[in-house]
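Support request from a user on the community tier.

User writes: "When I paste my structure tokens into the form, the page sometimes reloads and wipes my input. The last time it worked, I copied everything first. Here is what I submitted, just in case something in the input itself triggers the reload:"
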């Protein structure tokens, strides 16, 4: 991060909940890498989609219309929970209302929004993605589809919040996906799982005369409970 950018962060640290410049620098680097990963993994095309992360009272967001491979440490962009600019010269993503709505209503640490092909296709076909796999439990249950609204609007943010009730991810009709988590890695993983389950459902539904079997609520709860202890525990 440039010295000028660090000075800007220091100047706003008090209003941003005491956010330290080094914490912002590290979070920005992780945000940029996550945004680039959405392109590499085929979840977005060009500058579509957006990523954000909360660091104390600061919300770092990807800028509007800038290819992710061109972002540098000096491009760090931060706003507060109301969307007021704290530092940065670039304009924030047009989907900022959607990100801020999640941060206001949840304890999310990061948000990932993509235009993933299979998930977007599902959003055009059904009101929710059924429980086709136990990883549905990671998202809190069958993934709802938020009714269509113009991108970047408060209406879209409101529709999304309804679809996210008791969930950590949803589909946006004719648009894409939104997931959130405690960290960028968790939010991204949930996005990747949602796209994979969407592809799974589309594949299983494509055979004429056959209907995919679905998991019951009890089976989902059992899987969700086990998934809470999944992975390595650090001592």
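"...and here is what came back when it finally went through:"
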């Amino acid at each position: 991060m440039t010295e000028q950018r660090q000075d800007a962060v220091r100047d706003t640290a008090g209003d941003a909940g005491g956010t330290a410049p080094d914490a912002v620098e590290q979070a920005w680097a992780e945000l940029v890498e996550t945004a680039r990963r959405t392109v590499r993994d085929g979840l977005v095309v060009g500058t579509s989609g957006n990523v954000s992360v909360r660091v104390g009272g600061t919300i770092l967001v990807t800028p509007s219309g800038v290819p992710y491979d061109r972002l540098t440490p000096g491009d760090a962009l931060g706003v507060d929970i109301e969307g007021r600019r704290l530092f940065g010269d670039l304009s924030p993503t047009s989907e900022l209302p959607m990100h801020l709505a999640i941060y206001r209503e949840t304890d999310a640490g990061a948000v990932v929004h993509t235009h993933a092909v299979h998930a977007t296709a599902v959003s055009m076909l059904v009101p929710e993605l059924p429980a086709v796999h136990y990883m549905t439990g990671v998202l809190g249950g069958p993934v709802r589809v938020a009714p269509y609204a113009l991108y970047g609007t408060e209406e879209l943010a409101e529709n999304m919040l309804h679809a996210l009730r008791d969930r950590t991810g949803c589909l946006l009709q004719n648009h894409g996906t939104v997931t959130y988590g405690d960290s960028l890695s968790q939010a991204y993983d949930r996005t990747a799982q949602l796209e994979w389950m969407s592809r799974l459902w589309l594949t299983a539904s494509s055979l004429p005369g056959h209907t995919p079997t679905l998991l019951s609520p009890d089976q989902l709860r059992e899987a969700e409970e086990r998934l809470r202890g999944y992975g390595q525990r650090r001592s």
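Agent notes: The reload is a front-end session timeout and is unrelated to the input. The helical segments are 3-12, 21-40, 96-105, 117-123, 154-163, 184-205, 217-227. Residues 184-205 form the longest helix (22 residues). Escalated to web team.
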